[in-house]
Specification:
The chain is built from 13 helices and nine strands. It is an alpha/beta fold and 296 residues long. A six-stranded parallel sheet has the order 3-2-1-4-5-6, with helices on both faces. A three-stranded mixed sheet has the order 7-8-9. Helix 1 packs parallel to helix 6, helix 4 packs parallel to helix 5 and helix 8 packs across helix 11. The longest helix has 29 residues. It is globular, with a radius of gyration of 20 Å. The termini are far apart. The mean pLDDT is 97. Bound molecules: nicotinamide-adenine-dinucleotide (NAD). The site of nicotinamide-adenine-dinucleotide has 27 residues, from helix 4, strand 7 and helix 6. The site of nicotinamide-adenine-dinucleotide (NAD) has 27 residues, from helix 4, strand 7 and helix 6. It holds the Pfam family NAD_binding_2. Keywords: Branched-chain amino acid catabolism, NAD, Oxidoreductase.
């Protein structure tokens, strides 16, 4: 049986790890949050006391952490896991981080005799819970082949983007587009409502017209239009504005480094920056609606 160490049990990692447990994999889980850890333990995972404890006996390590600094702190340096993992261990980092950070971590993994994939995901918390995520993978083809049964337990589309870091580059392009689409969707809905339209009726119309997009159809930012969307539960439990801001910052850095023009990505980053500065950083990113339609 494959023994998996799963580190980072937040909005995404929690449901991803639960799916592995539900499919019968042996999972040792760790998170800094006792509450998140308890949810996994109740479902049948071993609750580890530290990341180092979680990896004991594991042949695969999966991490789902907020940002590059957390991933580097987990794996690199004298206290990092790479110093103690047995040679040949497969390490899959699903966090969204800079491609340059992913390559740095992969190089350190190779130097320690380990195998590393960057495998950021798309599909949101609903996709994580339903096991329908899209995995965008960078790394060696043979390592992806070995990881595939695990990824297929948590997702339905698995893409090989290229070598180490390529998964992150593709993910950043996707999330820059998502940030732009969500802001545009919120702007259009706010315009319609200001002019007397019902947000649900307008959403139905645009979903069947040329403005249709994922933010509108599956993650509608207007409260009450879609029961399952974070907007209908006070913008909680989804993809935090602070994380979208991180991703738009990564896109901007990538654009600067490669001399690419990304004016819409930059504008979207500024919108989310203002929104976060107004105190909404911990709310789901679809709360950008409040920038166009301030609440009382
Ligand atoms: P989150 O903040 O809900 O979860 C992160 C978890 O990591 C927290 O539970 C935190 O306690 C834990 N953590 C932090 N440092 C740790 C450490 N050293 N050891 C153990 N646990 C630690 O974030 P999330 O929404 O689950 O996002 C995770 C990653 O997935 C991010 O990179 C994000 O950009 C990406 N992502 C999120 C979504 C989404 O819809 N939420 C979608 C796609 C990708």
């Amino acid at each position: 049986m494959t023994h998996i160490a799963f580190i980072g049990l937040g909005n995404m990692g929690g449901p991803m790890a639960l799916n592995l447990v539900a499919k019968g994999f042996s999972v040792a889980a760790f998170d800094l949050s006792a509450e998140a850890l308890a949810r996994l333990q109740t479902a049948g995972a071993r609750a580890a006391s530290s990341a180092l404890d979680a990896v004991q006996g594991a042949s695969v390590v999966i991490s789902m952490l907020p940002a590059g600094k957390h991933v580097q702190a987990l794996y690199l340096g004298e206290q990092g896991l790479f110093a103690s993992l047995p040679k040949g261990t497969l390490v899959i980092d699903c966090s969204t981080i800079a491609a340059s950070d992913a390559r740095k971590v992969a190089e350190a993994a190779a130097a320690a005799g380990l195998r590393m994939l960057d495998a950021p995901v798309s599909g949101g918390t609903a996709g994580a819970a339903a096991g329908t995520l899209t995995f965008i993978v960078g790394g060696a083809e043979a390592d992806l082949a070995e990881a595939r049964p695990l990824l297929e337990t948590m997702g339905k589309n698995i893409f090989h983007a290229g070598g180490n870091g390529a998964g992150q580059t593709a993910k950043i392009c996707n999330n820059m587009l998502l940030g732009i689409l969500m802001a545009g969707t919120a702007e259009a809905l706010a315009l319609g409502v200001k002019n007397g339209l019902d947000p649900k009726v307008l959403s139905d119309i645009m979903s069947k017209s040329s403005g249709r997009n994922w933010a509108l159809e599956l993650y509608n930012p207007w409260p009450g239009v879609m029961d399952t969307a974070p907007a209908s539960r006070g913008y909680s439990g989804g993809f935090m504005t602070a994380l979208m801001l991180k991703d738009l910052g990564l896109a901007e850095t990538t654009a600067l480094d490669s001399h690419a023009a990304t004016p819409l990505g930059t504008l979207a980053r500024n919108l989310y920056e203002s929104h976060a500065a107004a105190g909404h950083g911990q709310l789901d990113f679809s709360s950008i609606l409040q920038y166009f339609h301030p609440q009382d």
